[in-house]
Amino acid sequence: MSTSSAAEGTVLHFGGLKSYVTGSTESKLAVLLVSNVVGYEYPNLRKLADKVAAAGFFVVVPDFFYGDPMNLDNPQFDREAWHKAHSVEKAYEDAKPVLAALKSQSVSAIGAAGFCWGGNVVAKLAKSDDIKAAVILHPGRLADEDVHEVKVHTAILGAEIDKYAPQNI
Length: 169
What we know:
One of its GO terms (molecular function) is hydrolase activity. The protein has five helices and seven strands; from the N terminus they run βββαβααβαβαβ. The relative contact order is 0.16. The protein is of the alpha/beta class.
């Protein structure tokens, strides 16, 4: 991996969604990264995807918001309406064709990691047989029932003080 700040992957349609993809398409191991509400274009998320790819994984970061990430800079932004338009359930359904596209590339194992809002999507995926492992980072509004019945090894990585994540999941 180079030390430049430029992203190393590319944006293309993958599994029906515009996605940032990085890493070798020959890899048998893949990671689905699910963004927080600021979306898949966030530079630090892409840098992280590139680092994961450098470890030997093929990484896909889909645009589950269809070009409409939350605008955190606008105090007038209607967050409630945005959440209704971009539900975790819809992203979970939208993730299925992405996972199918990964499997069609002969990927033998898929992991998923999600940040804040994306952690809730990954929690739903962890209840399916579609992934082999899950990582939920800074779990946004994750409730106990969201992690019950997970079928795969799941790591929940919250901040030391996190007002949204329950302490005893």
